[in-house]
């Protein structure tokens, strides 16, 4: 690919480059999804059904804003990710708490849903790479996959931490170790980058959820007792700061490009 074509593809792509900052914000957003949902349900007393309806409506608006953009814009993209994280948590919690579906069943259900999503995406677009997420069908598949990964991660994290009784800290360590194995498989043994990206993306959700529960829950429940408010506020501030930095970086690159 020529430099001109590579530059054009970069401008058309609707998702950010996979850098260290990408993974930091992703993990922070998963934690906010867990603690933010709990804050709305229990601290503000909205309850699970009302919170689910309200946040789903906000998510639809955020996704509409993201879809209308003609290129990657940091605040639009990461706003959508944080809201997907919250709604993904609420979907899982609704199935478990409202309808009595077991965590084992929800984990299997979302795993199958993700496989179906990936299969349909690949059959339609012949690629699952995020290096070419342009406007249109490919972007719709991308966001559907993101939503399912968040719901799956919530179910898997709760399954290990609560139902299997491993505790939040141990669950977080196990998922962190799994992410490390995936990184080693990619960087040392050359495992396919698309496959390792999506495996890591899935694993960071239960890792972030377990970290969120560990930080926010009381000591009696195996947490550090920081509370949902404190945890959500700290992580949101960091996310906003990093997204602000990415926005500044993007504007600086655009100014440099316009000068050339």
UniProtKB/TrEMBL annotation:
Superkingdom as given in the UniProt entry: Bacteria
One matching Pfam family: DUF347
UniProt keywords, alphabetically: Membrane, Transmembrane, Transmembrane helix
The protein's name: Membrane-anchored protein
Membrane-crossing segments per the record: 12-32, 44-65, 77-96, 102-124, 140-160, 166-189, 196-215, 227-248
